[in-house]
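Data availability (excerpt). The following record was deposited with the supplementary files.
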Amino acid sequence: MTNFCFAQSEARKNFVITLNVPDNQRNSNNAFKDLAKNNNLKKLTCYQENEITTELYFDKSGNVIKNIDTSNKVIGSSEFEYDKKDRLIKISYYEPNGKFNYGYKYVFSEPYRTEYELNDTIPKKRKIHLKEENITIYSDYDKENGWELSNVIFINKDGKYERELRYNKDGVYSEFKYYYNPSDR
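Predicted structure:
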């Protein structure tokens, strides 16, 4: 076995798990949320070829609060902070030597989530999710023109991408339509 993970629960019990994470969630903290919350996980250590490659640390809600990745030569670790409503409010990325590289903070003023680079007061991106329509709209901030539409994502009833429109200053410049084969995961 070359790929396996050890998990440690709140009761300090260790166990081996196999992770089958869908491709569309592979780099998402949400991929582990239910697993961590349902098993009271505090730490998940992943090995490859008998070496630790990743260590994930979780809070009580199952959120990843720290990610250490020894296989990544650019970003060695990441830290995540959440508010009382369980929303991501800050993410910090560090080089393998521990030096801060970059990060983002997220400010919520309903119905928007606005993204800022850490230590900057100028917004970068804004997101709004229209629940009833299952549409998420993204805008980028331009110092001269203000908010400019960048993406519109349509989600189907199964929570998967259905369609995506990408915009530039001239309007729609690309459109993607997603099709899923039910026999494929």
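Summary of structural features: The first strand starts at residue 3 and ends at 9.
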